[in-house]
Specification:
Blueprint (H helix, E strand, L loop, with lengths): L1 H19 L14 H4 L4 H5 L2 H21 L5 H6 L1 H25 L8 H26 L3 H15 L1 H19 L3 E5 H8 L2 H7 L13 E5 L7 H32 L2 H18 L11 H4 L20
Antiparallel strand pairs: 1-2
Helix pairs in contact: 1-4, 4-6, 6-7, 7-8, 7-12, 8-12, 8-13, 9-12
């Protein structure tokens, strides 16, 4: 019951977060809930044009629908009673997640400053989500249902990293603000996009040219989250984002493996289901036709809980 409750909480958080971000599909709108208005100060300077605009549009237009759809793959009544929906939904999720990962790679250079740790974290998340979905697809094609479940659960938990990331990032930004000794750099052009006035920018940062702020000129900005200066809020988020993403990835990597280790009964039941379905389709070795530890590793050969006899010409 406790594990089921935790899954419901996680699924609810994923749906709630996605619903709250659906307004981001209005990417360049003037509404307060649009992405352009709600993004971290200075972000829209980069994402408003060019390849970064294409990337953020592709990412948001695909990951938000995927976040709503993936949860339904784990609802038992849908898997048992609406198998066609389960399959079509699964194919759609695969396409959406892959496209969203392409978009994420396109924008990671400028996401919250685009530091090296941020780019590396985005790259790792893209790799593990893509690999998990690919392995889930391979296993279901081999009718290895237990491994299909495991890899789809991993994919969903990895995609949920963004929720935990936001919580850690905000908490870290608050702590860094209290310490008052964290700084980062921003270009004068970013600052101009925030204040809309070159004179206002020069009053705060005299290094910036009032007649033409450019990306080449960088200034030091203090990271202070609870401040009226938007660039300082952006700085506090930037210095926290990469670290928060790595911590969130670690927590989700660990958490899903703990969950899988605590649900051996369900894995055993689905292994038996895999054995019976593989026998019907003639996929050998029965019970281990997919990616299993006894076939590819040094685990003891798996034995079915219930033996099933294959139909032959002699016993039909």
């Amino acid at each position: 019951m406790v594990l089921t409750f935790l899954v419901v909480i996680f699924a609810g958080a994923l749906i709630g977060f996605t619903l709250a971000r659906l307004s981001y599909l209005n990417i360049s709108g003037t509404a307060r809930s649009s992405f352009a208005s709600d993004a971290s100060p200075g972000e829209w300077y980069w994402f408003s044009t060019g390849i970064y605009r294409v990337g953020i549009t592709l990412h948001l237009a695909t990951i938000l629908p995927a976040g709503l759809l993936i949860v339904w793959q784990f609802v038992p009544v849908i898997r048992h009673k609406l198998l066609i929906f389960h399959r079509i939904n699964g194919y759609l999720i695969i396409v959406l997640v892959i496209l969203s990962n392409v978009g994420a790679l396109m924008i990671c250079r400028r996401a919250f400053g685009g530091s090296l740790e941020t780019q590396a974290a985005v790259g790792v998340l893209v790799i593990i989500t893509t690999a998990s979905i690919g392995l889930a697809y391979y296993n279901i094609k081999r009718l290895q249902v237990d491994q299909h479940r495991a890899w789809m659960l991993r994919a969903m938990y990895y995609l949920g990293t963004i929720i935990t990331l936001r919580l850690i990032m905000i908490l870290s930004a608050l702590i860094a603000s209290k310490l008052s000794n964290y700084y980062t750099t921003m270009s004068c052009a970013e600052l101009l996009s925030i204040y809309k006035s070159s004179q206002a920018v020069q009053n705060l940062y005299p290094q910036c040219d009032p007649f033409g702020s450019t990306n080449e000129v960088l200034v030091i900005v203090q990271a202070t989250f609870g401040n009226l200066h938007p660039e300082q809020i952006a700085a506090s988020l930037r210095i926290s984002f990469g670290m928060a993403m790595w911590m969130a990835i670690f927590l989700h990597l660990t958490g899903v493996e703990i969950y899988l280790a605590l649900t051996p009964r369900e894995s055993s039941r689905l292994r038996q289901v895999s054995y019976e379905r593989q026998m019907e389709r003639g996929l050998r070795p029965f019970g281990s036709a997919g990616l299993t530890s006894d076939r590819w590793g040094d685990a003891e050969p798996w034995k079915p809980i219930k033996q099933v006899t294959m139909a032959t010409s002699s016993n039909i």
